Amino acid sequence: MRLKPRKCSLLKREVCFLERNVSGDGHQMDPGCVKAIENQKEARPQTAGVVRQLAGILSYYRRYIKNLAKVARPIYGLV
Questions:
Q1: Which of 5, 37, 54, 57 has the fewest CB atoms in 10 Å of its CB?
Q2: pTM across the whole model
Q3: Domain contains 55
């Protein structure tokens, strides 16, 4: 087995893995992803494909968004 030092994260209390920050306390969304989703609030989708992408992102992060069904109801209505 070969390890590349620049790709290894040993003895850290928190690592980023699959867009989640994983630590001994559990896992949370990566702050960069949170900002990307928050920026979508300001932008208005121009095509049906963009609406589908937004619905997909929201369903991927369903676990972290409180009352997602109520919040995303208008978006799912557009799809």
A1: 5
A2: 0.60
A3: yes
